[in-house]
């Protein structure tokens, strides 16, 4: 009997536990929801709050299993999110508007970088001081369309004509093109990336920031999802945006600790450039996940007026506020 009691006691305990788990009203830990998340490009300081959220477990605490992906090229996130091969991606507000104008079913669900970072950049040694000084100069670019419109707006705001510029396609070799004097200025360079790279090579940099010359301000980097994902998984996406918001808040409050999470997960990026770029990016991280309808509308209409898109896109097709 003793042997039977020794065996029956543990068995009874297991049966009671199983009964409790299966009883009506009993709570069972749900499996986390998987979210495939694609960056806009290779890991860089723009992404520090995301790596902070990953490293500190904010996505896990939100009941999410986030699978981070790095795109092969910058066009991938929009396309793969649109067709359902990624659940959430990072992209640029201008690109979201252009994609939607081409009927790609994606929209913004949150914000990572809350202000423009792109500029028209030049070496101060070039003698360029105002946008009008670009007249007769060679200006390098990587992507046509939106960049052309920015250049046109900035130059015309200073009373010059865009047609007086010589545009040269330098691909993404913006810094080499400037340092080798292949061009006198470049459009599309970032104040937190190319500026740092050039300054670390001992050159003084000048910039024309588009928002100071009539280009409506915009969100540099946003979180995107497809219409289908937004309709099917709003609660999952809301938790995802909430975890990103926690990462952003932590980065603002504890920048050094956030950067350590970034380099812990990307050890090769613990270098002077990444540290300096992070400091330049820190003031630009989004402080809220409530996107401005007026900001989306103004930039949408500006793009249409500059013939980047054929007509304004209905604003409700461009973004939805899911964040806290």
Number of discrete helical segments: 13
What is the typical, i.e. mean, pLDDT? 90
Radius of gyration: 24 Å
Helix vs. strand class: alpha/beta
Q: In CATH terms, what is the architecture of the largest domain?
A: 3-Layer(aba) Sandwich
**The CATH class of the largest domain:** Alpha Beta
Query: How many DSSP-defined strands?
Result: 10
| Broad shape | globular
Please give the share of residues in helix.
40-55%
User: Taking strands numbered 1, 2, ... along the chain, how are they ordered across the largest sheet?
Assistant: 2-1-3-10-4
Secondary-structure map:
Elements: H1 2-22, E1 33-38, H2 48-55, H3 58-61, E2 64-69, H4 76-82, E3 88-91, H5 93-101, E4 106-113, E5 118-123, E6 138-141, H6 146-157, E7 166-169, H7 174-179, E8 185-190, H8 194-199, E9 205-208, E10 221-226, H9 227-232, H10 234-253, H11 255-265, H12 272-281, H13 293-305
Parallel strand pairs: 1-2, 1-3, 6-7, 6-8
Antiparallel strand pairs: 3-10, 4-10, 5-8, 5-9
